[in-house]
């Protein structure tokens, strides 16, 4: 049995700059994000906890990328789930090869509020309600009297 490869990344952080949207010749949207994610560590010299920022380049494709460009701005908190992508290219000045690892997003969750404040509404740093639209059509209530055991419904088992 062969081992399968797993390439999954989940980060939450803040945008360090406004999203950059471009379109390929085919019309496909590509949005580039730069996200800062803090990790905490204890300083050996002082014994104090300090934040260490890590910066990640994120690529978001298609309609989701267009949404990011329309609704996100520098400083906005986001949660991103995606995969790592390594690439290599020749430097334009001919000085050698360059390499980079970026995140290709599968999903981007907008956190905080549109005014850029990232405070959560429920005490855990995450908002109690997102400002992104949610499709709730599958939660619509069933008509009155419908369903098993309901008033006027068919009590027979369907099998």
Could you please describe the fold and organization of this structure?
The protein has 1 helix and 6 strands, in the order ββββαββ. The chain has one helix spanning 62-71; strands at 9-15, 20-23, 29-42, 49-61, 77-90, 97-110. It has a 5-stranded mixed barrel. The two termini are 41 Å apart.
Tally of DSSP helical segments: 1
Strand content: 35-45%
Give the C-alpha Rg. 23 Å
**Measured distance between first and last alpha carbons:** 41 Å
Would you identify the regions where 5 or more consecutive residues have pLDDT less than 50? 118-136
Mean pLDDT: 81
- Based on helices, strands and strand pairing, what is the structural class? mainly beta
Kindly list the characteristics that best describe this protein.
single chain, 159 residues, mainly beta, 5-stranded mixed beta barrel, 1 helix, 6 strands
Ordered list of secondary-structure elements with their pairings:
Blueprint: E1 9-15, E2 20-23, E3 29-42, E4 49-61, H1 62-71, E5 77-90, E6 97-110
Parallel strand pairs: 4-6
Antiparallel strand pairs: 1-3, 1-5, 2-3, 3-4, 5-6
What is the compact description of this entry?
This protein is mostly beta strands. The protein has one helix spanning 62-71; strands spanning 9-15, 20-23, 29-42, 49-61, 77-90, 97-110.
